[in-house]
Amino acid sequence: MAAVKKTAKKPARKAAARPAAKGQAEAARKRDGDAPDLANVRAQIDAIDRQIQELISQRARFARQVGKAKGKLAAAVDYYRPEREAQVLRMVVDRNQGPLSDEVLVHVFREIMSACLAQQEPLKIGYLGPEGTFSQQAVLKHFGRSAHGLPLGSIEEVFQEVEAGNADFGVVPVENSGQGTIQVTLDMFLTSPLKICGEVELKVHQYLLSRSGRIEDIERIYAHPQAFAQTAGWLRANLPRAEKIPVSSNAEGARRARNADDAAAIAGESAAHVYGLKKVIMRPIQDDKDNTTRFLVIGRRLFPPSGHDRTSILVFIHDKPGALFDVLSPFARHGISMNRIESRPSHQAKWEYAFFIDLAGHVEDEAMKKALAELERHAAQVKVLGSYPVAVP
């Protein structure tokens, strides 16, 4: 009988153990969440994609109605409103609650707006070429891929093509966070009638590129002088004997480097794709990890305020004691912040200088109007280069 009792107890213990294990498994599922059904998740994504596509089409139809409401205009440039685009992108950033970053969502909406505007006619944008330059990347960032890029041979040519009406806008570099001002751009504003219509800030990652991808093969390096300056420390440490050959753009350097195994170029990742080059070093080689270049969008007219704007002016001063103080004091009196000041020879008389000044605000703001009116009484000449939206981060 004792043996019978033993065998009767074993099943009872097993039966008790099963519910305990089952309970632990259920608790674990509740804690970690049930694994979703993949087919159901994909079906929901497909449904959302249909809604997104439907809404984009609806937005494009409304954009076309905006064009009709403006009446028949001369060209695509007449439909473009940089202040409105800046307002839309700022609202995108303000609404964003994740999980996608502001940068990703701004890029998505920029492309939607670019495609909607191109229904009228694609904008023609001049930039420092050839294809694969950072200037081209700035064009894509600001105008989207539906705009038509025009690669040109020099910054001077970008100004000329916009002035002649062969390009609707141009994109030109104006300063780098580590190397300072691109002087040729500032000098063009001394005589050009063009206006600044926008700005673009672009993180610049410089790579060492070559046909073979082997650092031991490199005897000469092609790059724009700015790129050599931005990577000087790395080049001294790693390729001190390589010949450095300056060229008009990094993309031009990449175009030349593709012809020989002993040549390399310093350029961006897009140039590697365009010219079939390999990264010699997988990481960027610029000395400053936050290396950023600011570009200006140039056009033929001023635009209304966007609500967060910058004004650039050019001031020619009289050669007298306190002249610069007289130029700057009106802005202090009217509470206007000065973001930047740069002097350049005026090219009007020996030892005379012009000052490029960036100010917070728009020329239509009352404080700015009063400050500029005061300034004109002290300066030899004041030229408003543009009032434009501050770059959307």
Structure description:
It is a single chain. Helix content is 44%, strand content 23%. It is an alpha/beta fold. Among the domains are: 55-121, Chorismate mutase (Chorismate Mutase Domain, subunit A, Up-down Bundle); 207-290, Periplasmic binding protein-like II (D-Maltodextrin-Binding Protein, domain 2); 302-389, Alpha-Beta Plaits, CATH 3.30.70.260. The strands form three sheets. Strands 1, 2, 3, 4, 5 and 11 form a six-stranded mixed sheet that branches. It has a five-stranded mixed sheet with strand order 8-7-9-6-10. Strand 3 and strand 4 (180-181) form a beta hairpin. Helix 2 crosses helix 4 (102-117) and helix 3 packs antiparallel against helix 4.
Keywords:
alpha/beta, 5-stranded mixed beta sheet, EC 5.4.99.5, 6-stranded mixed beta sheet, Alpha-Beta Plaits, Chorismate Mutase Domain, subunit A, Bifunctional chorismate mutase/prephenate dehydratase, disordered N terminus, 393 residues, 13 helices, single chain, ACT-like_dom_sf, D-Maltodextrin-Binding Protein, domain 2
In short:
The chain is an alpha/beta fold. The protein contains 13 helices and 15 strands.
Radius of gyration: 30 Å
Note the gap between the termini: 84 Å
Assign the CATH superfamily of the domain at 302-389: ACT domain
Look at the structure and give the CATH class of the domain at 302-389: Alpha Beta
By secondary-structure content and strand pairing, the structural class works out as alpha/beta
Domain Prephenate dehydratase: 124-300
Pathway: Amino-acid biosynthesis; L-phenylalanine biosynthesis; phenylpyruvate from prephenate: step 1/1; Metabolic intermediate biosynthesis; prephenate biosynthesis; prephenate from chorismate: step 1/1
Biased composition (Basic residues): 1-16
Domain ACT: 312-389
